[in-house]
Amino acid sequence: MPGSGKTLFANLLKEKGFTVISMGDALRKRYEKDAKYGERLMDYAKRIREIYGDGVVARLSIEEITQSTTKIAFEGVRSLAEVEEFKRIGEPLIVAIHASPQLRYSRMTARMRADDSTDVNILRKRDLDEISLGIGGVIAMADYVVVNDSTVEEFKKKSTDIIERILR
Amino acid sequence: MPGSGKTLFANLLKEKGFTVISMGDALRKRYEKDAKYGERLMDYAKRIREIYGDGVVARLSIEEITQSTTKIAFEGVRSLAEVEEFKRIGEPLIVAIHASPQLRYSRMTARMRADDSTDVNILRKRDLDEISLGIGGVIAMADYVVVNDSTVEEFKKKSTDIIERILR
Ligand SMILES: Nc1ncnc2c1ncn2[C@@H]1O[C@H](COP(=O)(O)O)[C@@H](O)[C@H]1O
To answer: What ipTM does this complex have?
Structure first.
């Protein structure tokens, strides 16, 4: 979910030698070529899911693989249909990063990235949008959940433990 | 999700003075009076949700409150629509208990409760049924997540910490 800390987790994966493919970037690449005038990224994503199926962003992301390695992570999975696509090319493990809405909203308000809003109603609406894509099912079926509810150091420690369990 | 350890968490809540209302029991009570011949509990739940709305099992559960106390826990929330019903009577906090499907399936196979199956395909099908009710959205929006992936003792410790944070 937005503001949970998944990018920080992805950076730790990179440090451990993983190739991280951002599903958002794979989507954005297609969006820049293909979107309708004035269409929002989220609406574009919904539209291509309707045309090509719920797994389409996973397939666009798989296209981004350039090397042959098993240490690949896809950042930004939103539905179990996407997980099914990854199962066609390997044996994916799902890692979910969790923080409460309250914490996520205050972090997003603090960091103020261009696409983050500071209005809690807008942030909540965006959460419900993500949930409508099916992200909740992915979290429910996760192999690992990292709870990011204290310090960055604590989160890094928990994340590193989990990455080591995965690599074992 | 089935087999994650939510009943164990509910028992700890009881020890701390909470009244725990099982949403499954509230549903079952109505089911026993009202179900069609041969209808499964889950199918009955889906049917009454279609008739009365996605929050109906929460409303049946709220009917079960007999004392006036703020220390009430509802076990078995399956959708954000149910959370909205609870918001009408108070300020609910969501606690999700997480364990990986692999762990949950092996625990359910070991305990063999009446409504547990040992066939992984059936367990997975039941998971997807729960997800179709909207449980993933509830987990995604949880205020607290307890990860139940090691021993019972460890889980009890983490749970007690969280209950104490809630009561503070
Ligand atoms: N809030 C709910 N909404 C719909 N079905 C429910 C709900 N709570 C329990 N159930 C059903 O009751 C069964 C037993 O629930 P539980 O006691 O939570 O394990 C589940 O498999 C569900 O089919």
So the answer is: 0.93
